[in-house]
Specification:
Layout lengths: L8 E3 L2 E3 L5 E6 L4 E7 L3 H16 L1 H4 L3 H17 L1 H12 L3 H23 L4 E2 L6 E9 L2 E5 L5 H14 L3 E5 L6 H12 L7 E3 L4 H10 L3 E7 L2 H14 L3 E4 L5 E4 L5 H13 L11 E5 H17 L18 H16 L3 E4 L18 E4 L6 H4 L6 E7 L2 H9 L3 E2 L1 E5 L3 H10 L4 E4 L14 E2 L2 E2 L12 E9 L6 H8 L2
Parallel strand pairs: 7-8, 7-10, 8-9, 10-11, 12-13, 12-18, 13-16, 15-16, 18-19
Antiparallel strand pairs: 1-2, 3-4, 5-6, 6-22, 11-21, 14-15, 17-20
Helix pairs in contact: 3-5, 3-7, 4-5, 4-7, 5-6, 10-11
The structure holds nicotinamide-adenine-dinucleotide (NAD).
């Protein structure tokens, strides 16, 4: 039996009991309680910030050479790998995700630390082209203290995506995970501590967004917020950040279109569409939640999609063949059910699902059946609002121009999937749709080397990629005189003095 992290927070390098509001982490497969812990209060957060400021300003950290700092990132990656099973188990308990998925997320988090260690060691500074009698260059320095605020859906991966580049850049990081999933971030703190990172540089402060999240955003010593979460929270946070003129990066919500052309490989497209919406039980910012199918194949494609959806295994996260595990929390299941109720009320036809599964173990957990709607147009709420659950809406389209118009007519701009054998067509459509990521004949593939982020209401800025570290650094330009002579503007006056 794998032991869950204790009910203590990691406050500037010290394990301390929180003094904020109580947080209850549950296992949504059966409603049992994982841990009850006190979250971080404003006073806890202020202590963490004070310790982080001291640790970050210490030349022992600030002046480390990149290859020396990279060693910490490699050690953290090793620690995550050595504890991958533990991390997967803790995250599955906290979020209800399958062990298969949380195992992959742990491996990806280790890869993220390793990648940013390597990127740090190999990031050159630039000697800029000389335009005068000075050597000109551009160098990068740490911002100072970074607040990282993450959601509950893939905590170890979203934590790593922020913590690794921010530490690589030489900052201190204060991480606030979501209240439904505090445990895996605390486990990350244990691993980072064991990797020998100097005390104070990293904190994990679970707690209420309005309290500890807000403190991070408003505190004058926090130099940047990197946020992943809902669009409304991100917008409110950005408005506060504007008052301090603080940079923010925002990874927000989505309602991503998936487009199947009549010439697509039907089985490849069917499998990709199913994975795109129903893996992670739809709790994915990039979920392919709006499906557009070209009219000549619409009826056949939708029939097969519905039949295949009914064959997906809805089950316990610890069973190896489970494809659709419970939702993260009973409250979230209620929110998904409410979206379904509204879609029905606006006239959408339920092709499959539309309810929680009944009987046996399903009765105890926050399960919901994979659901497919049709019979509405793109203006319907179910086509516009993010459900963040296993709910797909299907619409027909006539031609390229029609699908570009429909797919783009949405507030979000996170991702897009295109299924066709015609690559020039995929290029034209992919370039025309405003989205941060386009997948062609695949979906939800990720690589840490490839930048990720959203357009429109889906966010601001990019994570990942070699430039990912620079997002946590201040750029400084240097001019070093080569002439060795007094400036001509005042030279005569100086000579006569
Ligand atoms: P959320 O916005 O409710 O919460 C995200 C985080 O912000 C949590 O840690 C929360 O406690 C904190 N928070 C809440 N109010 C705050 C405040 N006033 N000040 C500071 N922090 C505050 O989102 P969620 O329900 O945890 O996650 C689901 C959302 O996240 C979905 O909209 C999903 O699309 C989005 N998401 C986006 C990406 C991406 O990369 N684009 C990835 C995963 C999830």
């Amino acid at each position: 039996m794998i032991e869950l992290p204790q009910n203590k927070l990691f406050v500037g390098g010290e394990w301390e009991e929180g003094t904020g509001a109580e947080i209850t982490s549950i296992f949504p497969a059966d409603g049992s309680v994982n841990r009850v812990l006190r979250g971080a209060s404003v006073a806890d957060g202020e202590r963490a910030i004070e310790r982080a400021s001291r640790a970050q300003a210490d030349p022992a950290w600030r002046n480390l050479k990149p290859h020396e700092r990279a060693r910490f990132l490699y050690a953290i990656a090793d620690g995550i790998e050595a504890n991958a099973q533990r991390i997967a188990h803790i995250q599955s308990r906290d979020t209800g995700k399958t062990l298969r998925e949380t195992g992959a997320l742990a491996a990806s988090a280790a890869g993220t630390f390793r990648y940013f260690g390597a990127a740090l060691e190999t990031a050159d500074e630039t000697l800029t082209v000389q335009r005068g009698d000075a050597l000109t260059m551009s160098v990068h320095e740490p911002l100072g203290l970074v607040g990282a605020i993450t959601p509950w859906n893939s905590p170890i991966a979203s934590d790593a995506q922020k913590v690794a580049p921010a530490l690589a850049a030489g900052n201190a990081v204060l991480l606030k995970p979501a209240s439904w999933s505090p445990l895996v971030s605390l486990e990350l703190a244990r691993i980072i501590e064991a990797a020998g990172l100097p005390k104070g540089l990293f904190s994990v402060l679970p707690g209420a967004g309005r309290e500890i999240g807000n403190l991070l955003v408003e505190h004058p010593d926090i130099a940047k917020i990197s946020f992943t979460g809902g669009t409304e929270t991100g917008r409110a946070l950005a408005l506060k950040a504007a008052r301090k003129l603080m940079p923010v990066s925002l990874e927000l919500g989505g309602k991503s279109p998936t487009i199947v052309f009549a010439d697509a490989d039907m089985e490849q497209a069917l499998a990709g569409v199913l994975f795109g919406i129903f893996s992670s039980t739809g709790q994915s910012c990039i979920a392919g939640a709006r499906l557009f199918v070209e009219r000549p194949i619409y009826a056949q494609f939708v029939d097969r999609l519905v039949a295949a959806t009914r064959r997906l295994k809805v089950g316990h996260p610890f069973e190896a063949d489970t494809q659709v595990a419970p939702l993260v929390h009973f409250d979230h299941r209620d929110a998904v059910a409410e979206h379904v109720r509204k879609a029905r009320a606006e006239g959408a036809d339920v092709l499959t699902g539309g309810a929680a599964p009944e009987g046996g173990a399903y009765e105890k957990g926050a399960y919901y059946l994979p659901t497919i709607f049709a019979g509405v147009d793109n203006a319907a709420r179910i086509c516009r609002e993010e459900v963040f659950g296993p709910v797909l809406v299907v619409l027909p389209f006539d031609d390229e121009a029609d699908v570009i118009a429909q797919a783009t007519d949405n507030d979000y701009g996170l991702a897009c999937g295109i299924w066709t054998r015609d690559f020039p067509k995929s290029w034209r459509v992919g370039r025309a749709i405003r989205a941060g990521t386009v997948w062609v004949n695949t979906y939800k593939q990720f690589s840490i080397s490839t930048p990720f982020g959203g357009e429109k209401e889906s966010g601001l800025g990019r994570e990942k990629g070699r430039e990912g570290i620079r997002a946590y650094m201040a750029q400084k330009s240097f001019y070093m005189d080569l002439s060795g002579a007094p400036h001509p503007w005042a030279a005569a006056a100086v000579r006569a003095s």
